[in-house]
Design a protein that fits this description.
Elements: H1 2-29, H2 34-38, E1 54-55, E2 62-67, E3 73-78, E4 82-87, E5 93-98, E6 104-109, E7 115-120, E8 124-129, E9 138-144, E10 150-155, E11 160-165, E12 169-174, E13 179-185, E14 191-196, E15 202-207, E16 212-216, E17 221-226, E18 233-238, E19 244-249, E20 254-258, E21 263-268, E22 277-282, E23 288-293, E24 298-302, E25 308-312, E26 319-324, E27 331-335, E28 340-341
Antiparallel strand pairs: 1-28, 2-3, 3-4, 4-5, 6-7, 7-8, 8-9, 10-11, 11-12, 12-13, 14-15, 15-16, 16-17, 18-19, 19-20, 20-21, 22-23, 23-24, 24-25, 26-27, 27-28
Length: 342
C-alpha cells in the first residue's frame, strides 16, 4: 500500500509543478491588461435607464426569466407554481401555465418561439408546446435523468436542449425522443448556470466548485476551465461575440474571462458591494454588463474599464434573474418581490 501512496504523492507533486509551469508561460504571454488597453477609451456618459413596464401577475418569488428571440415576449417562472409568457410591450399575459411542481428554478424560451421549458427541485426538465392546435398549452416532454435539481436549461433548437443540474453534471437532450444524448461531467460542485455561445457549438457552465468550464457540444468534452472566483458561481453569460464570458459569484464579484487568452481579464467589484450576484447579462455591444444582486439592486458595469456606471434600484427584494432582449433595446429584471420590470 505504501508504494501506491508514494506514487500518488509523486504524481500530485508533478501535476503541481506542471500547473506552475503553465501559469508562468501564461503570465509571460499576458503582455497587457484590459484596463490598460481601455484607458484611452472615453468614459461612458451617464446611462439613463428608467422602468418602462412593470409585469404584475406572479404571486410569489420569481426565480427565472428568459427573453424570446422575437424581442417582444418573455417567459418567467415563479414559486407560485406558474410559468407566465408575457408580451413585454403591452404587459399582457399570453399564457399562464400551471406547473406540476411549484419548486421551479429555471425557465427557457426556444429560439423558434414554439416551446418553453422549465425545471427545478423535481429534477425534471418539462417542455411545453405553446403552438398546439387546441390552443391550450400542453406538456410536450418531461426529460428525466438528472439525480439533482435542475438549475438552468437552454434550447439549442426545438429538438435539442441543454440542462444543468445540482448533480454536478450538464446534459444534452433529444427533445423529440425524450432521451439524453450526451452527459458533461467534470464539475465537483452543483452546476448553477449555463450559457450557449452564439454559434451554438460550445457552452459555458458555472458551478459551486467556483470554476467555470467551457464544453464542446460536438465532442462532449470540457475544453477549458477557468478559476479565480472564491465562492459559488451563480451565473455565467457569453459575451456577444462568443470569445469571452462573464460570471457572477457569491464572492460579491463579477469577472470577465477570455477564451482565446485563456485567462481572467477583469474583475467587477466595489467596496460597498458585499453580497452575492444572482444573474448577469451583457448589452448587445458588450460594453455594459448588468448584474443582479442579493441586496435588491442591479448594478451596471463598464465592461472595458471595470467601473460601475450606475445602479438600478426599483425592486423591493433580491433581484433573482435578468436578461437583455435580442435587439439590445430592453433589460428585464425579475425579483423575489414577485415583479418583473422592463
Amino acid at each position: 500500500m505504501g508504494d501506491i501512496a508514494d506514487r500518488i504523492a509523486a504524481a500530485r507533486k508533478e501535476a503541481e509543478a506542471l500547473k506552475e509551469k503553465i501559469k508562468q508561460k501564461k503570465d509571460a504571454l499576458a503582455d497587457t491588461t484590459l484596463k490598460a488597453v481601455a484607458a484611452d477609451q472615453e468614459k461612458l456618459t451617464v446611462v439613463n435607464m428608467k422602468v418602462r413596464r412593470t409585469l404584475k401577475g406572479h404571486l410569489a418569488k420569481i426565480y427565472a426569466m428568459h427573453w424570446a428571440c422575437d424581442k417582444r415576449h418573455l417567459v418567467s417562472a415563479s414559486q407560485d407554481g406558474k410559468l407566465i409568457v408575457w408580451d413585454a410591450y403591452t404587459t399582457n399575459k399570453i399564457h399562464a401555465i400551471p406547473l406540476r411542481s411549484s419548486w421551479v428554478m429555471t425557465c427557457a424560451y426556444a429560439p423558434s418561439g414554439n416551446y418553453v421549458a422549465c425545471g427545478g427541485l423535481d429534477n425534471l426538465c418539462s417542455i411545453y408546446n405553446l403552438k398546439t392546435k387546441e390552443g391550450s398549452v400542453k406538456v410536450a416532454r418531461e426529460l428525466n435523468a438528472h439525480t439533482g435539481y435542475l438549475s438552468c436549461c437552454r434550447f439549442i433548437s426545438d429538438r435539442q436542449i441543454i440542462t444543468a443540474s445540482g448533480d454536478m453534471s450538464c446534459m444534452l437532450w433529444d427533445v423529440d425522443a425524450g432521451v439524453k444524448t450526451l452527459e458533461f461531467t467534470d464539475h465537483t460542485g452543483d452546476v448553477m448556470s449555463l450559457s450557449l455561445s452564439p454559434d451554438k457549438n460550445i457552452f459555458v457552465s458555472g458551478a459551486c466548485d467556483a470554476t467555470a468550464k467551457v464544453w464542446d457540444i460536438r465532442s462532449g468534452r470540457c475544453v477549458q476551465t477557468f478559476t479565480g472566483h472564491e465562492s459559488d458561481i451563480n451565473a455565467v453569460q457569453f459575451f456577444p461575440d462568443g470569445q469571452a464570458f462573464g460570471s457572477g459569484s457569491d464572492d460579491a464579484s463579477c469577472r470577465l474571462f477570455d477564451l482565446r487568452a485563456d485567462r481572467e481579464l477583469m474583475q467587477y467589484t466595489h467596496d460597498n458591494i458585499l453580497c452575492g450576484i444572482t444573474s448577469i447579462a451583457f448589452s448587445i455591444s458588450g460594453r455594459l454588463m448588468f448584474a443582479g444582486y442579493e441586496d435588491f439592486n442591479c448594478n451596471v458595469w463598464d465592461t472595458l474599464k471595470g467601473e460601475r456606471v450606475t445602479a438600478l434600484t426599483s425592486h423591493e427584494n433580491r433581484v433573482s434573474c435578468l436578461g437583455v432582449s435580442s435587439d439590445g433595446m430592453a433589460l428585464c429584471t425579475g425579483s423575489w418581490d414577485s415583479l418583473l420590470k422592463v
